[in-house]
């Protein structure tokens, strides 16, 4: 029974069309994972050889026989070269970084070629997006595959195919590469850039080191959204550039980005607006919090806080 089951699995047609599913890395393209079939040009070439053979038989033409068998021999050799162009490659996929919807996702590919030179290998996940690479022998390579994102959320990496028609284009060899990795897409920032006016001032002994309004604490480059009252106009007149005055004191400002501030918009538009406000609050160096229907994220201000807020928006209602 075990032998029968193994035999059925060996000739499972599902592997032929969709591969073996997610695999552990690195993925080794051994002989059971590489498939080969004639291309349209290969089928046309075989039909031409058949016509040449029929003509040679009909006219007893020895030169016709010789040319027909020579071309047939070349096509048989092409099968071996095409198949070996993929065989025994080692492939790994890196973890792509999160992007905003509509932006390009960059997926790192790490390929190890421990054998002969390989040429015209195509990496793709659909018929339109395709990356073509050449792999010199005994080297490690890193390639970046770009994928356009459309929908926010947590998505599984697609199944990729490695294929080649080298050297004559008469046969196509291919193999599937699929791993259990996901990537994160944040909502596309869009909407009104101006931050909502609802803010909360809190007392503190140390001040906010630059966002208060009591004691002068220095200046920095102007960021869009800064109050014009804090612009150092004298420095601008001296051609020192556009600078914003910073103050410290006994209070600091907290901004709550509230789901209720986006009433009247559709779901995705509300998430896009909040994403834009998060970016603007970070740019303005303001401590901000995110208030969603079932979750509140306390105010803070750093890259980790920004990513936490963006993840909350990306996963909302999913």
Give a short synopsis of this structure.
With 318 residues, the protein is α+β, with helices and mostly antiparallel strands. The chain has seven helices and 18 strands.
Describe the structure.
With 318 residues, the chain is an alpha+beta fold. The protein folds into two domains: 11-186, Sandwich (Immunoglobulin-like); 199-315, no CATH class. 29% of the residues lie in helices and 33% in strands. The protein contains seven helices and 18 strands. The protein is elongated, with a radius of gyration of 31 Å.
Oligomer kind: single chain
The CATH topology of the largest domain corresponds to: Immunoglobulin-like
Structural class: alpha+beta
Q: Which blocks of ≥5 consecutive residues have pLDDT under 50?
A: 203-213
Tell me about the biggest sheet?
A: 5 strands, antiparallel
CATH superfamily of the largest domain: Immunoglobulins
How many E-type strands? 18
Count of discrete domains? 2
Characteristics:
2 domains; 318 residues; Immunoglobulin-like; alpha+beta
